[in-house]
Amino acid sequence: MSQNTVAAARGAETTPEKVPVDPSHGRRWWILMVISLSMLMGVLDGTIVNIALPSAQRDLGFSDADRQWVVTAYALAFGSLLLLGGRIADLVGQKVTFLVGLVGFAAASMVGGAANGFLMLVAARAVQGGFAALLAPSALSILMTTFTEPRERAKAFTVAGSVSGAGGAVGLILGGVLTEYLDWRWTMYVNVVFAVVAFVGGVALLHRTPRNTSSKLDVPGTLLVSAGLFCLVYGFSNAETHGWGSASTGGMLAAGTVLVVLFVWRQNKAAYPLLPLRVLLDRNRGASFAALFISGAGMFGVFLFLTYYLQQNLGFSALKTGFAFLPMIVASSAASAVANNVVVPRTGPKPVVPLGMAVAAAGMVWMTTLDMNSGYLTQVLPQLLLVGVGLGTVVAPAMSLATSGVAAADAGAASAAVNTVQQVGGSIGVALLSTMASDAVTEHLSGRDPKDPAVLAQAGLEGYSTAYWWSAGFFLAGLVVTALLYRRGVPQQDENAAPLVHM
Q1: What is the pLDDT of residues 464-499, one digit of tens each?
Q2: Domain hosting residue 237, numbered range
Q3: Are 49 and 178 in contact (CB under 8 A)?
Q4: How far apart are alpha carbons 320 and 310 in whole angstroms?
Q5: For residues 70 and 53, is the Cβ–Cβ distance under 8 A?
Q6: CA–CA dist 100, 202 (Å, integer)
């Protein structure tokens, strides 16, 4: 689950007044605590592993070219299977999918923590992502059916949203503490603690909900989108080791493109589409999905490469690295609140989101000036704050508008799509940025002594700088796209649309 998740759950296909009251309603605030804990676990996993990645790489001995897959495997499985997870929650029931998601996530975390090699770790991360795709929509759906009164629902989702928002910062700190004082493997094992508590609470508090017999699973659409997204991300990742001109890289990218096009065609024909195209065709929603995809690509790159820069070049410990990212999280959260709750309701998204893209791009360009002698307070912190403000100004309004005006019957699909585009954007961004950084390192080492520590350090800086430039390019592209697509003025909410919850 991503930060500032828009709470429109899969299976909540009626307006608040018509949502059937869940038998668990009397224990609703305890249920909120259980759901929030599961959301915290999911958000933690997005940042806690980044901090531990350098230690895991040293311990398991995998290459710089391979390290991206530890991040990408989780995001790819989560993003490509999230639409399917939402549909399964409809078909099987919320309680069952929630509990199965918790058990599967915990089991995969245990395997990841016990990994004796790179492939075992990556496989565990992929399985984690798959069960997270089952857990996320069912958790949101439970909140939607448990809190049926509009004011209480708003309070519940505010609490859940705050937990999700704080989870990124908690993950950075907790990842540093566990890595430094125990072992990187505990960044995996800690998920088991959260999952066990949430599972016990779920069994005790939740009632089994009826299955939605009026809906069916679009199996061809599921296969097309999952295979297509995998091929695209794998193709970008493969370019780092095999080059852009290789048959494997080009073939996977071409196959992925064809499969995604076929998925779009299928959604236009399917009786029960995973993602109704009408959700994407509104200009404001289309612009919002594009903004989330692009910001996901740039944001994941910042966390990955700056983590390595702080630990390997500036000599920060894992714990110090976690604290180093805190100002960025705080700046992002503050900017999100101001942009989404104060500015956009007065001006609309057109001037706000493009401005956020520009601010984030400026922060990334400034980050290219970092070198071996850069001080954190004067030469790292300002860039982090700038990028944080930019991301907050983009992500919160885009996530809210991605479901604004969606018909009630499409609320679940729109909510799942929000998480999907962010995760897949992050996967492709990490793969592409890693490839470009690796090419820059190779080019710098050409004709130089690769055993010279100074040469290696400078090569690493060249790689990071290249990744920051490309990330800035992503945000500039986002500026152009959002400036062109967003409508002028404040969006009007359709009275018959699904309820919009600001997070």
Answers
A1: 999 999 999 999 999 999 999 988 877 665 444 444
A2: 218-271
A3: no
A4: 9
A5: yes
A6: 11
